[in-house]
Amino acid sequence: MSDPRRDLLASIPSVDRLLATSWVAPLLERNARPFLVSVLREACDAVRSAILEGRALDVSPAQAIEQRVATALARRAEAAPRQVVNATGVVLHTNLGRALLPEAAVEALIRVARHPAALEFDVTSGRRGDRDDVVEEDLCALTGAEAATVVNNNAAAVLLALNTFGEGREVIVSRGELIEIGGSFRIPDVMAKSGVRLCEVGTTNRTHRADYEKAIGPATAALLKVHTSNYRVVGFTADVPLEELVELGRARDLPVIEDLGSGALVDLSPYGLPKEPVVRERIAAGAAVVTFSGDKLLGGPQAGLIVGRAEAISRLKSNPLRRALRPGKLTLAALAAVLRLYRQSPDLREALPTLRWLTRPLEEMERVGRDAVARLQEALGAEFRIDLEDAEVEIGSGALPTATLPSKAIAIRHHTESPDHVARRFREAEPPIIGRIHEERFLLDLRGIEDATTLVPVR
C-alpha cells in the first residue's frame, strides 16, 4: 500500500474520538447513542473503503465522515414511505399507493391515531363489541348484503373465503378465470395456500355450464367465479354468468363465491367510464360471498371487503384465520369515512379523489398544462424543449383493463441528455416527481395534477 493511502487511513478518527467532537455533541442530544454510534461506524467504514479502492476524497477523511453522517441522518429523518408527485397518468398506481383518500378519511385516520377509539367496544351497553360494526351497516346498505366483514386486502378475502368453505375439499373454477395479477398473485396459488384443491373446468376461452355440472362430485365444496380484472379474452369466447352458477349451486347445495377484484359500489357508466360489475348486482344475483378491494375503484384504503349471506359471513368470522387477516383501527376508520361518503355525499365525484381523477375534463388538464409548461421552461432553461401534448393513460391496478382515458401530458426533451437522465432529475426533486418515458420523451401526465407548481422540480 502506498504511503498516501496509509496516511489517509491512519487519519480516520475512531468512533470514540468522534463522539467527543463538537459537531457530534448536538447530534447526541437528538439521537439515541447506540443509533448514532452505528451511523458513525457506517460512515467510517465507507470512507475507509473509498480510500482502499483508490477513490479520491475532496476533503479530509474526518470531514468526509462528517458529511456522510449528515447525509445519513437527513435521509433517515425523511418520512417513509416518501411523498411523491404522481405524474405517471395512472390513477390507481400500485407502486405509488393506489387510491388517494378523501379528506374525510384522512381526518378520521388522524382522530383515531391520536385518541383511543371504540374499536371493539359498544359504548351504549358498555360491553365488548365487534370491529366490523364500524363498517358493516354501511356495507350492507350499499351492497344489499345481509352481512359483511373486512380483512386487510382482497387476496386475504379470497384466502379466507376459500379456506372457510373448502379446506380439504375441491373448489371448481373456470380455466379462463385462473388469473395472475401484480406481484405474482395467482388464483391457483392462493387456492393451494387456502387448503383447497383446484378443479379446473372448460378451456381458456370457453367454459359452459355443462363443464361445471360434469365436474361436481362428492369432494366439491364450492363454485368460484373470478372477475378477470386485468385482462379480457375476446373473439370466440363463452363463460357462465353468475346467475347460472348460482342456480347450479342451489340445485347441488353448493355456495358460489365471487372474487370481483377491483369492485365497484356504484355504476361508473354515468361518469363516462366503462361499466364494471357492481357489487349490489352480484349480491342480487345470489352469490353467497362476494369479495373486492377497498383501494381500487372504491377509492378507499387498502382492505379486503367481504359481503354476502348472514350464515356465510358468520362462518367466515368464526374462522381462526380471520384474526390473522383482520385490519386495524386506522384502516377501519378510513374505510368507514369513505363508505359514509358513498351513502351521504350529494356529489360523489367531488368527494372522492379517485373518481375526480378518473373523470377530469381535458379542458381542465390543458389549463393546468399551459401554466406548467411556462413554469417549467423558466425553471429548466432554453436547452429543454417542453410541449403540451395529447396522451392516453390507463386506470391501473387491474381496474378496467381494456379502457384507456384521454389525457394531456407535458413532453420534455433535452438537446443532449437522455430521457432517463431527465427522469432522474425530476426524481431528485423534493418531493420526487414521477413521470414516464415514452417514445424518447419524458412525459409528465396531467390527469392527477391539479396545481402546476407541483411539477416544477425543487432540490
- CATH fold label of the largest domain: Aspartate Aminotransferase, domain 2
Strand content: 15-25%
Molecular shape: globular
Task: Name the CATH homologous superfamily of the largest domain.
Answer: Type I PLP-dependent aspartate aminotransferase-like (Major domain)
Overall radius of gyration = 28 Å
- Specify the CATH architecture of the largest domain: 3-Layer(aba) Sandwich
How many helices? The count is 19
Average pLDDT taken over every residue: 91
Name the helicity range.
40-55%
CATH class of the largest domain: Alpha Beta
Largest sheet: 7 strands, mixed
Intertermini distance: 40 Å
Secondary structure category? alpha/beta
Number of domains: 3
In the predicted model, the low-confidence regions spanning at least 5 consecutive residues are: none
